[in-house]
Amino acid sequence: MATAASRAELERLLEDDVPYGDLTTEALGIGGAIGVMQFAARAPMVLALAEDAAAIIALAGCDVELFAASGAVLEQGAPILQARGPAAGLLRSWKVAQTLIEIWSGVASDTRAIVDAARAVAPHIPVACTRKNVPGTKRFAVAAIKAGGAVMHRLGLSETVLVFPEHRVFLGDLPLFQAVERLRRAAPEKKLVIEVKTADAALAAAVAGFDVIQAEKFSPAEIAALVKRMASMAYTRARPLIAAAGGVNAANAAAYAEAGADVLVTSSPYLAKPRDVQVEIASADDGTRARLILRKDAAVPAST
Fold first, then answer.
1. How many whole angstroms separate alpha carbon 5 and alpha carbon 59?
2. Over the stretch 92-118, which tens digit does the pLDDT of each residue have?
3. Which of 51, 57, 188, 267 minimizes the number of CB atoms within 10 Å of its CB?
4. Domains contained in the chain, CATH given
């Protein structure tokens, strides 16, 4: 069962919530009682970080059975996991595991909505999510957007070349083609990407030799016009890809795809509303079982 985070990282999540023991459980003297805990989808969702949640519960000393994998499309009431163990472990891990799934399943669900909307028009168009996630959560963010069917736009500043206007203010009067030459000498195996805010700037960047033109806050109509203008140009290299960025979401993704964008770049899934996970805990000491009926066929595999 692969997790996004390491064991040490998951242990830190538990420690953050329970740094000095569970006072309520200890004061009640119920920590050794055996119980069963079940997670289920309260509403339809694309599941994310289920493996990490299960690992957290296991770290707390419980046996866990996972019924759905990250990336699965779940119906309302579909089972996610079941855990059995001492009450101390169940209650210690409960909220951390639940919240992890809820927050990142929200991101995965909104990501899938954008992907589905775009691919209804352009079946193979990639949706790329930016690095503008909450600092310190990148492992989870990456796992969630992958569960939603997207890819990462940039993992960080170290592995990609993206020239912003904020870089160019330090270049003075250096011609753009010379900036391209400088970049290719320093990073010969990398694609060169540049953010532009106008069609004229996009055309100048294409002539200068950039590989990808990131059109920031262009409307779908402006993207369509840019695609048409760039298609009529002659290039010494392949035509630059056009990435539509800034304000891309599920409501307009189809319009951008229909306009001819090669890639959709978005940060909007990171602002998604969490998807609720229903949790039921029951004592097993008296032979009772948790009430949730587990339906293993309720988890639908992720679409491709």
1. 13
2. 999 999 999 999 999 999 999 999 999
3. 188
4. 7-108+272-300 (3.90.1170.20), 114-271 (3.20.20.70)
